[in-house]
Amino acid sequence: MKRRRSITREATLALILLIILVFLSLTTSFFSQSGLYSFMLDVSPTIVAAIALGMVIFTGNIDISAGTISGFVAYTAGALVKAGVPMIVFVPAAITVGTLLAGLNGFITVKFKVPSIVVTLAMNMVHIGFYATFLPQSGWIENLGPRFTWFGRGRIFDLIPYTFVVAIVVAVIAMLVMRYSRFGKELYAVGGNRQSAIYSGINPDATVMKVFLVEGFLIGISALLRAMTRNEVMPSVFVGRELFFISAALVGGISIFGGSGKIIGAVMGAALVYLLSIAMIYYGFQDYYQFALQGIIILIAVFITVADFSKIRKRFGRRTRLEVAENE
Amino acid sequence: MDNKNVLEIEGVDKHFPGVQALDDVSIDLRHGEIHAVCGENGAGKSTLMKIICGVYQPDRGTMMLNGEPLVVSNPNDAYSRGIAIIYQESSLFPDLTVLENIFMGHEIRKSVLPFLKVLKIIDYPAMRKQAGAVFERLGMDIDLDAVVSTLGVATKQMVEIAKALTFESQILILDEPTAALTSNEVDTLFETIRKLRDEGRSMLYISHRLDEVFLIADRVTVYRDGQYISTADVKDVTKDRLVSWMVGRTLTNLYPKENVDIGEVVFEVRDISQEDLLKNVSFSLRKGEILGISGLAGAGRTELAQAICGLTKPDKGEIFLNGKRTRISDYRRTLEQGIAYITEDRQTYGLILPMTLKVNITHSVLRQITNSLGIVDRGKETEITDRFVKQLDVRAPNGEFIVNNLSGGNQQKVSVAKSLAVEPQILILDEPTRGVDVGAKSEIHRIISDLAKAGKSIILISSDLPEILGMCDRVLVMKNGRIAGELSRQELSQERILGMAL
């Protein structure tokens, strides 16, 4: 029963996406070369980041500092480009920065047994302070030139951005990892029932550490996908981005309680969040409305996840009966 | 069964901050035997099992497996040495499939590319084949792709067993496997366990239910307060003997029911219906009476209790309190009217485990002990706590003690204390002795009896038939949401109840 429902959850999401797409195509110029191109370009970094956050949330953790980590990644890439470093070096270097910063979050979470929400909230503030205090011009670097932007602005058939291809490849790999790797199973196990995970011979601390490293790696990719479309980098534009990442993951049906959800959900969640803001732009709403809408979407998403959280109701009284009924 | 020992444990000590959990404990397990492990909560059974499985490390002592020293530093070591523990159903991952659960942490993997040996992926077909073979051998038909949360308790238990068998474990440890099962399901489980024994596997069987020990086990070992007490062939001991080993004294009476003059009807329920959970349930309750509600799991007992307490909303029905019709809309109102419900799942709903005794006992009466500014009167708080701790004999050093650190039986007493604090006239107890040891059980029964004697009316919901027989003045038997029959104390017998319940 639950299985059918969880398939329906993703299917419902796909249906909503389809309806919005059709609606936008019929009523606006969305379904044009430029409309599709800009959508794919905008959604790519969020797809990758939503997968990253999704994986962290699977384990019952969260990373509030994903946005500000992105800022460091972008700054590292920009600074290295300015110093004349080739792409083969600055891309891995920038991603490494993301991996290490998220890894630090994971390390503090595991080592000092502090809930990740507290660790990453604090880190978020540390990062913002760091931008302003230690980075020259708060990390603003301009005139990076085509050595930086060629990839971000490149497209196939004059339509599909390279960045979108990267996002899709990341999504496919992530799905394969979740299905076919031991790591993928461990994420669900640790988030679903930590004690049982221990009894199954899984070391939850190691899993949490690993997932933060993977998340940092993906946040690194995500930040580059966004940064490299522009001729300048400014870390502070990434502040608050984590809200989009997290909401995309939650809208995609990943349970904030951990242990439940799908990567494909995060991908579709990212698409949905973007399609809705694009729709609002087309219909001429102002930025403020968009933010309010974003918030409402998160609420609806959380509501859906909670409503789906049948364990709560089941435990509350009807457990025995339901289970007996299902047995028969 | 030969007498070869597969597992020998000697002189194990384990110390936790503040407690000596195990003190020089020993056990030996023979080839192809079911060895029951008994003891009250806190006797050290679980700690010992966790040591065998590598969850904890012993401070001292030796373990030998098939004559060789056994060192298990984590649960995986235990698995690879052929030792598997079957926890209660709760140790499965609800959102994963049966197949994923069985192989969690031990997935079968294969190299995806011959030249890249490190890159291994999970081999679903191989896992499916292996798990399928195990279920077939157990004679069970379970959908490997079913998500575990959709399965019934008994099926989950079978999944746990299948998990252990998939690793060809020689030694199985069953930790209260029947705690959540109905009697039919228990029979199926026992059949499986016997089948496994006949295959030559050895089992350690932990249970609070002594009847089961006599039904299934070959030998039994008893622990008390972290110490080894005795081991015996089951056929050579009596139940009373076991109980006296467990509690360290002879329990005079497990069911200290006293005869009480039963007064007028204080509470009456008429025609309560709720979806298809409850169908036209009517009954009455008298002053000083202990009314039992029996029936199989799923018959609607808990649903009935929750509906009459305002925890859920029935579709129709009337409730009369002291002859007056009353509207029960939510639980707070119910409490104010002098009806208290003590939930079966104290860990989840009954108590705030990480808080102190004082907070737990007084939080249902906070209104009465706060002044007009909303500030809690600390004196009254302590006084109420101390009164009930004393009355119910809760074994805790003081009211500031954290509930989580109490044993199951004492937690249950706190749960009762919390409900008594509101001075209810009617107490609804849902499985009050589930998972508590025999000593605490007897004490809880004494409390129930005392309350009835003091003029309170009690509804006792229980799956434990001896408890129903021993404690109740009158029993309602439920089946499929209806009251299938009513028995007075004189008419009570296990057969009659089962006859109505089945």
Provide the descriptors you would attach to this structure in a database record.
heterodimer, A: 328 residues, mainly alpha, ABC transporter involved in vitamin B12 uptake, BtuC, two-stranded antiparallel sheet, 14 helices, 77% helix, globular, disordered N terminus, disordered C terminus, B: 502 residues, alpha/beta, Rossmann fold, six-stranded mixed sheet, 18 helices, 27% strand
Structure description:
The complex is a heterodimer of chains A (328) and B (502). With 328 residues, chain A is mainly alpha-helical. Helices cover 77% and strands 1% of the residues of chain A. In chain A, strands 1-2 form a two-stranded antiparallel sheet. Chain B folds into two domains: 5-82 and 169-247, P-loop containing nucleotide triphosphate hydrolases (Rossmann fold); 265-501, 3-Layer(aba) Sandwich (Rossmann fold), CATH 3.40.50. Chain B has a six-stranded mixed beta sheet, sandwiched between helices. In chain B, a hairpin with a 2-residue loop joins strand 16 (316-321) and strand 17 (324-326). The model of chain B has no long low-confidence stretch (mean pLDDT 84). The chains are: A mainly alpha (328), B alpha/beta (502). Chains A and B meet through helix 1, helix 7, helix 8, helix 9 and helix 14 of A and helix 2, helix 5 and helix 9 of B.
